[in-house]
UniProtKB/TrEMBL annotation, chains A, B:
Similarity comment: Belongs to the serine/threonine dehydratase family.
High-level lineage: Bacteria, Pseudomonadati, Bacteroidota, Flavobacteriia, Flavobacteriales
KW Lyase (keyword) present: yes
InterPro entries, alphabetized: TrpB-like_PALP, TrpB-like_PALP_sf
Protein name, as recorded: Serine dehydratase
C-alpha cells in the first residue's frame, strides 16, 4: 500500500476536534544524562491518557454514516478499549468492547465511563474473536483492530507530525513497539515531515517479537512476555509490518531493569505520570547513548494509564 | 510594610533567568467534578520541583555583591533547602544548609546535587538555629528564612503573576498555606494583577495554625501536625502574617482523606506528579464547591517532590 504526505495532513486535520494537541516537554537533567537533546511528546496528556485516541478517532471518522450508525467493535483490555469508547462517544457512535472476564475492574470501569458497552468472555484469543464476530453479526458493527488498521496507523502517526511541526530538525524519533500501529504511523510521519529523521523502535527484551520479525522478515510472536510494559506484549500485523520493514531504521531491546530505571527517572525528574510502556523508549536512548550522542531526539511518551497501587512493584 | 505593583513586576523580571515560566494545565474532568473552571499553575515543573525556587532566587539577587560572596545559610529539611542550594549555585554563591540529622538521605542527596554544603544537627528548632548562627559567625553568610522574608514572599508571588498574565479574569486563586510565603506573595499578586481576584488559602485540619491565626489575630502554632502534607506543618511569620490578615479572603481546612482523594485525582487524571501539600488546594475547592460554582479559579500546584516509595501509603 502507498502512503503520501497529503493523506497524513488530512488525518491531522480530521482528528483535531476530537484530540488534544499534546505538550512537548524537555528535561535539562535527562539531556545531561543522555548526552543528547530530547523533546518528549506527551501523549500521557492525550484524551483518555494515551495516543490510541488518535487512531480510534480516525478509524471511526473513516466509516460511512451507515456504518457509524451501526457502531464499532473491538477486543482489547488495554488503552484501545478506552480510546474506541471515548472516540465513539464523541462522535455519537455505539462502541462494543470485548474484554476478557479476567480484566481488572478498574479498566472495565474506565470503558464504562466513556460509554463503551462491555461483553465479557474467557481470555483466550479465540474466545475474544468469537465474541467480537457475534457482536458484528448481531449489530452490524464494524470491527476496528487496535493496531493493524490503516486508519488507526495513520491516526497514530499524527503525534509525530505535531512533534515535527514544533521541532522540524529532529535526527531521530523513538517510540515503543507493541502491536505496531504507533511505530508504523510514526515512521511514515518521519519520512514525510522530517528533514532527515530516522524512526527507531524500542522493545522489552522479554517481548522482542518485533526485533525478531525485523531479523526474519516474517511476523514473529512472543511465546512468553514477562514484562512490566504490558502494552507491548502484542505482535505486529500484515498492514503495519511492511511499513516497519521499509521505514523503521532499527529496534533497540531493553531489560526490565532498564525500563524501571527510565520510568523512575521520568516520574521523579519530569514530574509526569507515565505507564511502563512509555519508559521503554527512553531506556533505549540511555542504553545506546553512543548512537544518539549530540543528536536531536523526539520520544513519544505513549500514555499515562497506570494503576498507582502497583507503582511500588514497578519501580523497585 | 507597603508593597506595590512595580515592585512585583521588577521581581518577575529579575528572577526570569533563574526560573522556568511553568505551564498552566486544565482538566475537563476535574472541571466537571468541581462545577468550576480551573487553571492549574504547575510549579511541580519549576526548577528543583517547587515554587520555592522563585523566592530563593529573589532573596539572593537582593543581596549586595559582598554579601553574595560570603554566601547564604538556611535551616530546612524540605524544598527550600534544595531551592536555596540551586539558586545559589546558579548565581555562583556559596549555600550552607542546616538539616536535622534525622532528615532522609534522599533529601540530603538532593541538596548536595545542587551544591549546598550541609551541616547536620539534632532536630530541635534551637539546635537548628544555633547551628545556623554559628555558620553566620564563621562565614559571614546571610541567613535567608524559607517563608518569613520580604524578598522570598515577593518571589513566591511571581507564580500567580504569571498565571494572571495568562488568565487575567480569575475570580479566585487558591494556594496551600504552610509558612505563609506563597500565600502572602499570591495575595499581593492577586491584589495588584487581578481584576477582582480573591486569594484563598487551603490548609490541613491537622495543621490549621493559619486558620486559627486568622481567627485570633495572632500567630498560632501547631502542637501536633499529623498530616501527609508535610510542607504545611510550619507556622506563619511576622512579615507574611500582616499581608495574610489584610489580603487573604478565607482559609479552608480539609481532612487527610480529602487531601488523599484530591491527590489521587490529579495523579490519575492530569497525569502529573504532585506532592501532597499541592493537593490541599484542590481538596478545598472540591469541599466548598458551592462557593466556587461557575467561577474561574487558579490553583497553584506548589511542587512535585515526593518519595515514590511512599506513594502507596499516601493514596490509600
Amino acid at each position: 500500500m502507498e502512503y503520501n504526505k497529503q493523506q497524513l495532513e488530512q488525518v491531522l486535520y480530521d482528528i483535531e476536534p476530537y484530540t488534544h494537541r499534546t505538550p512537548v516537554l524537555k528535561s535539562r537533567l535527562i539531556n545531561e544524562i543522555s548526552g543528547s537533546d530530547i523533546w518528549f511528546k506527551c501523549e500521557n496528556f492525550q484524551r483518555m491518557g494515551a495516543f490510541k485516541m488518535r487512531g480510534a478517532a480516525n478509524a471511526i471518522l473513516n466509516l460511512s454514516k451507515e456504518q457509524q450508525d451501526k457502531g464499532v467493535v473491538t477486543h482489547s483490555s488495554g488503552n484501545f478499549a478506552q480510546a474506541l469508547s471515548l472516540a465513539a462517544k464523541s462522535l455519537g457512535v455505539p462502541a462494543y468492547i470485548v474484554m476478557p472476564d479476567s480484566a481488572p475492574e478498574v479498566k472495565k470501569a474506565a470503558v464504562r465511563t466513556y460509554g463503551g458497552k462491555i461483553t465479557e468472555c474467557p481470555s483466550t484469543l479465540k474466545d475474544r474473536e468469537d465474541a467480537a464476530n457475534q457482536i458484528q453479526q448481531q449489530t452490524g458493527a464494524t470491527f476496528i483492530h487496535p493496531s493493524n488498521d490503516t486508519n488507526v496507523i495513520l491516526g497514530q502517526g499524527t503525534a509525530a507530525i505535531e512533534l515535527l511541526q514544533e521541532q522540524p530538525d529532529l535526527d531521530f524519533i523513538i517510540t515503543p513497539v507493541g502491536g505496531g500501529g504507533l511505530i508504523a504511523g510514526t515512521a511514515l510521519a518521519a519520512k514525510f515531515f522530517g528533514r532527515n529523521c530516522k524512526c527507531v523502535g524500542a522493545e522489552p527484551l522479554e517481548a522482542d517479537d518485533a526485533w525478531r520479525s525485523m531479523q526474519s522478515g516474517n511476523i514473529e510472536s512472543n511465546s512468553s512476555a514477562n514484562t512490566i510494559a504490558d502494552g507491548l506484549k502484542t505482535q505486529l500485523g500484515d498492514l503495519n509490518f511492511p511499513i516497519i520493514l521499509e521505514d523503521v531504521d532499527d529496534i533497540i531491546r531493553v531489560t526490565e531493569a532498564e525500563i524501571k530505571s527510565a520510568m523512575k527517572l521520568i516520574w521523579e525528574r519530569m514530574k509526569i505520570v507515565i505507564e511502563p510502556s512509555s519508559a521503554v523508549a527512553l531506556a533505549a536512548v540511555l542504553k545506546e547513548s553512543q548512537l544518539f550522542k549530540g543528536k536531536k531526539l523526539g520520544i513519544i511518551i505513549s500514555g499515562g494509564n497506570v494503576d498507582l497501587k502497583k507503582l511500588q512493584e514497578m519501580i523497585s
